[in-house]
Design goal:
disordered C terminus; alpha/beta; 9 strands; 5-stranded mixed β-sheet; globular; single chain
């Protein structure tokens, strides 16, 4: 699959946050397995400029992540330790940075709100100090609680928490604090309310969820716009790089657009 992607595409900046299956093979700590990686493989394969690496500057050969927690040490009485593996330290998965006039903040819902609060305050304080920012986007996996995430760490609730912190609060008051989430595999952009603020990007398989596939989203930060493409059809492609497969996924797509306080959807054939 990765061989189908051009070098130009793979050279683009990658922003990613971990989800439940990046920690636990079966998607929940209650069904822990010896094969669970607890995010250790994820944080290396999909490397981000995380909080853990803030002191690893150019030319520094130090390890950019904190591997002080042994995932196989099941000596504690925590739920994850009893049935699977121990989570790495949270700052391996927290990050914030700026691309152009967009501020970006990523989190992991696998940790508690109390553990995350110092990072939240720091990230919002950083946002307030950056010149030229016009839009701030929060990234997280869970759109609902459960399967490893508390309700306070699922993105709709976490967004409301972040909106109270100095720095983020001012962007929210201007309507320029947004959030992106996944987890529930359905192509509906605003499933949890907050229309035009929270966007779900999650229509990629899972037969137990909605029978649709293929969702794309990108933003135009100068106008605070978001666009997406979704199709009600699930595709079963044996050759994911084929033109026919890509056309099948988009043959009956719906294109939706949000800018400011308006939203619209149009058919596309």
């Amino acid at each position: 699959m990765f061989g189908c992607i051009s070098l130009e595409a793979k050279s683009k900046i990658l922003l990613t946050v971990p989800g439940n299956h990046d920690y636990w093979v079966m998607g929940t700590p209650l069904l822990g397995r010896k094969k669970d990686q607890c995010g250790n493989g994820y944080l290396q394969f999909y490397a981000q400029d995380a909080k853990a690496s803030e002191n690893v500057t150019a030319g520094n050969k130090a390890v950019p992540y904190d591997f002080s927690v042994n995932p196989g040490d099941l000596s504690t009485n925590s739920l994850s330790a009893l049935w699977g593996c121990k989570l790495p330290t949270a700052h391996n998965f927290w990050w914030y940075n700026q691309i152009g006039n967009v501020g970006l903040i990523g989190q992991s819902g696998a940790y508690s709100l109390d553990d995350t609060k110092p990072f939240m305050a720091e990230a919002c304080e950083w946002v307030a100090q950056q010149s030229g920012l016009q839009l701030v986007v929060l990234f997280g996996h869970w759109d609902v609680d459960g399967l490893g995430a508390d309700s306070e760490m699922a993105m709709p609730k976490w967004y409301t928490e972040m909106a109270t912190y100095p720095g983020c609060k001012e962007f929210n008051e201007r309507g320029m604090l947004k959030f992106i989430m996944g987890h529930t595999h359905c192509n509906s952009p605003h499933p949890r309310g907050e229309v035009g603020v929270g966007f779900r990007v999650a229509g990629f398989g899972m037969a137990s969820s909605c029978a649709n596939y293929a969702f794309r989203l990108w933003t135009r930060p100068r106008r605070g716009c978001a666009f997406g493409i979704s199709t009600p059809r699930r595709t079963h492609c044996t050759a994911p790089c084929s033109i026919a497969c890509r056309r099948a996924a988009g043959a009956s797509a719906q294109i939706w657009q949000f800018c400011g306080s308006t939203s619209r959807s149009t058919a596309h054939h």
